[in-house]
Amino acid sequence: MKITDKHSTIIHAATKVFAKKGFFNARISDIAKEAKVADGTIYLYFNNKLDILISVFEKEIGILIEQVTKALALETDPKKQLEIFATKHLTMMKKNKNLAEVIQIELRQSAKLIKEYRNNKFIEYIDIVSTIIKEGQVQKIYRADIKPGIAKRAFFGALDEISRVWSISLETDYTVDEIIGQVMAIFLSGMLIPPAAQAE
Amino acid sequence: MKITDKHSTIIHAATKVFAKKGFFNARISDIAKEAKVADGTIYLYFNNKLDILISVFEKEIGILIEQVTKALALETDPKKQLEIFATKHLTMMKKNKNLAEVIQIELRQSAKLIKEYRNNKFIEYIDIVSTIIKEGQVQKIYRADIKPGIAKRAFFGALDEISRVWSISLETDYTVDEIIGQVMAIFLSGMLIPPAAQAE
Amino acid sequence: MKITDKHSTIIHAATKVFAKKGFFNARISDIAKEAKVADGTIYLYFNNKLDILISVFEKEIGILIEQVTKALALETDPKKQLEIFATKHLTMMKKNKNLAEVIQIELRQSAKLIKEYRNNKFIEYIDIVSTIIKEGQVQKIYRADIKPGIAKRAFFGALDEISRVWSISLETDYTVDEIIGQVMAIFLSGMLIPPAAQAE
Amino acid sequence: MKITDKHSTIIHAATKVFAKKGFFNARISDIAKEAKVADGTIYLYFNNKLDILISVFEKEIGILIEQVTKALALETDPKKQLEIFATKHLTMMKKNKNLAEVIQIELRQSAKLIKEYRNNKFIEYIDIVSTIIKEGQVQKIYRADIKPGIAKRAFFGALDEISRVWSISLETDYTVDEIIGQVMAIFLSGMLIPPAAQAE
DNA sequence: AATGAATGAGCATTCATTCAT
DNA sequence: TATGAATGAATGCTCATTCAT
What we know:
Four copies of one chain form a homotetramer. By secondary structure, chain A is an all-alpha fold. The first copy, chain A, has a domain at 56-191: Orthogonal Bundle (Tetracycline Repressor, domain 2), CATH 1.10.357. Chain A contains ten helices and no strands. The first copy, chain A, has helices at 6-21, 28-35, 39-45, 49-72, 78-95, 97-113, 120-138, 148-168, 176-189, 195-199. Chains in contact: A-B, C-D. Chain B binds a DNA duplex through α2 and α3.
């Protein structure tokens, strides 16, 4: 709780700047100005520009993990849990454009920029989804033939692509609730009309 | 004919270079060298670096559209059509790492770099999905409450996130067929164990 | 009088382009376009860009020489002859902005660009002035202590500086006649009030 | 103090380089090397290359104004004052080849390069001449029919053209004193043999 | 710890010139 | 002669990083 936690201040500033300009177009001096420190000061806390990007990314994902985890703790039904994940994710993305931008673009960039970067925080995040699915399979709620390792990506990808459009346009054809309803309907029950219903 | 189609040669080279280094780290001279032309020659065919990026992107998406459209023409069942889309998309992404990279990263970049860029080619591509869904709804195969405008993004996002991993790692935990099976199962029938089955 | 005297056509075009953009900002392709020939064609008639500049300059000065000489042939009074020179020079400069520009700037540039360039045409032009003065001295009209080699420069410089302002602004505070009247008054009679008049 | 006045150092270096190579042929790296700073350092003090040119020009003209003004303060006779202006101008041009070059060429260039550039410093400089003439007219020393606005240009132009030759050649046919004598004789008394003298 | 002036490597783009046709 | 596509050297300017204070 230090009054002047420069490290955090800089990360906060960098998040804003990266979101607005993207990693390559962001200048260290932009971040420094936003953080109200000298350019050189940044190098007392980070090794280089890329280091800032990774820190920003991990911090943001960290917040997501924390928020989602907290919300999930109150619920045990795997169906509801998946919905909570979707709701939390989309709500935060919608609310925090910076976060959305950073995840959208920098998730891809950082993977390219640093081959060695394993991005454990991100893996931890989407593994929340596979954990829910596995638990649902144990509870015989989710089909056993679903592979959590694939389903987690499909689920996250669906949410991510939807929020991508928000960060580039002001398109608000659908409400968040509508979208969540649709995504949950698809992922839980699929798009096919059930044979039983068809028979009617 | 193709002997001196510099325009195509440069796009081809640029695709390779962008895929390998990303837009910002790619140098015009890299592209020129790859295309075996002088740096200046590139500017006889493109206005600037961004122009190359957009051309590359549109050409690649164009190929996808063409391939997918061709494959879809042979099939009328909306269930099968969706599967064909997924299969074609994933197969081409798997085969053509450059294509995957360019779509993965540059789809996000170009949107940021040019606010005015409407990316019609890309919209055309994912609208293939919504068209299939709409047709399926007419045929009473897909549920009427599914909104094609949301479902198309969820479907594309799911495929895209899965192929994202391919472009950054050599991870081959699953075969393409396995993945397609999983994605189709989820999107068509959902992850829930059907009540009927549960009742059993 | 060849219908397609490319050499002249190119010089004509170059004059226009140099006047409008200046030597360094003019592009060979600008000249080629203006002359309606291909870029490469220019190199069939000129060695390089500098060569064009010199040709333009010499052609323009040549025209000046021709015009002034013709006008002077009709007059023998050295006082009148000097006035004719001033009138012709200023009138042509006023009428032909391209010419004025080229002389103004390129006279200085070419001297710098080519140390060896003796600029004989230009020397020939201002030597018209010293010739007039010498003749006037022979006729006991101009003071014998005036050195024609210095006076010619002072006279040309005065006219040149006056026309310089025309090429950069639309300033028309004075008419050409007014200016000629003033310049002739100064150079012929000086600015001092004559002692005789003062005595009055 | 002067120990690290980078701004001045760079202007000084630029003056030298512009004089030697001209604006267009001068490289930023030439100026940087001459000033013994890094290329980038120049951009901490100037916006761009043109900005340097203007600064150089204004500084040099400023020096001229200062020197001439100081010398004029000691003299009240308008005849002598005009001579002092001529002497100072020519002497400084002769002594400082860089100054002469920059004024000669860049005075013309900058006018072309920046249409909006009013060049107030230069106007201030030549207005010294018109101020002297006006004062001389008040004192009934200079003829009332001389228009100071035209005469100032004629006078400056005469001096300028004379010094132009110095900057392109080593021609020293005449001494500065000789030239001043001639110019003053012409401008004060004109080139005509006075009627009274002729009558003799 | 903090500063911010200074550095200098790096790159997109231009354009005079060439040359195969 | 004429073309214009192709060349590639050349340079203004940026910005991540350093380091003396």
